[in-house]
Here is the input.
Amino acid sequence: MKKKRRHGELRRALHACAPYFTSAALFSAAINILYLASPLYMLQVYDRVLSSGSVSTLVMLSLALLIALTVMAVLDLVRARILIRAGLRLDRLLSSRILTALVTQANATPGTEQGQTLRSLDTFRAFITGPGAYTVFDTPWAPLYIVVLALINPLLGLIAFVFSLMLLPLAVINERITSAMLAEAGEAAASSYGFAEAGLRNSRVIEAMSMLGGFTERWSRDRNRLMAAQVRASDRGAALTVLIRALRLVMQATMLGIGAYFVIERVMTSGSMFASTILLARALLPIEQAVAAWRQFVGAFIAYRQIDELLNANPHRPVGISLPRPRGVLSAQSVTHFIPGVQRPVLCDVNFSIPAGESLGIIGPSGAGKSTLASLIVGIQPPRSGAVRLDGANVATWNRTDFGRHVGYLPQDVELFPDSVAANIARFGPADSKAIIEAATAAGAHELILALPQAYETQIGERGVNLSGGHRQRIALARALYGDPSLIVLDEPSSNLDMEGETALTRCLAIAAQRRQTVVVISHRKAQVNRTDKILVLREGAPLLFGPSQEVLSKIGQLPIPVAAKLAETA
Here is the structure.
């Protein structure tokens, strides 16, 4: 029995928009049928009105044509509005889901450019609401005009059919010679934009060390590759577009000449001659439009593929059952983890357990895997093997929305969002003024926030540009403490703090201990790990020591001199 193929999320979203596309197809049918009013009007005027001299017939025919063209224009407008709504519906179905998948993928492969897929959604949405979609809906009706031509004169219908077959290979050739170059241009564009954005994020480094010349030269390589591919594709596409347009005009002139010959030979009427020319033009127009809009077709296809690959690679996580608030019992069971592209494990067989309300210090030299372990503890990504558990539940499979309410996390690289201080502390959830102020006070940030121009309503700016590094870190600490979480994970919490900030951090850890909150601290400073109940020492991803703080610190001095020297720097 043949296995039924599972459709992806993107196809299901497009299927949800099917009523819009069906309506647009029906309106396209009516529009293309009404387009026949113009050649039929010309046929009747030349063959009946001019020969009979009937003004009343001319008036009635003109009125009928006016009504038909008005209805056609209204239907065209309605079709456009329907496709715009289809794009809006698709955006509502996919935009949040794509952003969620991008966050998941960014955590799995940190440091890579991820924002391109959001632009791909805009590209695909623009295609289904623009001229490219009209071409798709109108092209199937081209044979209708050839059939009507054949009804007027079978030979002219055959000629129109041959003319269409002559243009189709040119459209295929256009696809063959431009698709690869347009795809290359798309890749070069993504690389160019990503490199430029990285430069803007590090503008101070570029300016301070006079890197602008080299940076611009490096960026120009991708830009030149982009422009070269676009120019080659545009040159060849433009040549074929001009050729097809010229051939279409030649074919129209040929149809007019053949029609005139038939009129002279009394095979057909003059009205049929002009109507045939209009019908041929309409039959050939979709082919020319498809070639002219081919770049949009290729861009939409690439965008579709990128969105589909992203969603398939990062499937929607099931919501799962909401668990009760954890007490804070934290354990790691044979945790091993790899980073893509790195042969050896960044963490290898890590085991520890701490009861609720206690604190754990994690120390080790650079590259020991401390920050990776922190990300596994808060469930950002699952380990390759083993599990991190909170109150016995695997944090990687916990309902993320539910789990996040019980966890506070301060990453090593502090990032705040371009919104108000209050919104950042409240994690963009419903603003609870009392809880916001309590978290800021516990983090020792309340007074410095009040000193800001608009206090808690101060806009932080893009990447926290309006705040100092110390202010950003203390506000991020307040965000981690918001909502009285059961588990708090702090990765280098004092890296940007002055003496006042370190005092506030020490007071914060004391408050957490009083509240019986489980705290994990990763720090290079002895003052921080000295205050923890237990210490885990990592070296090259493997646990070296684990136990009560004073016992572990005393054992570090008994290790071989090179190892002890490295660990002494961190402890």
User: Anything to note?
Assistant: The two ends are 63 Å apart (CA to CA). The domain at 330-570 is CATH 3.40.50.300 (Rossmann fold).
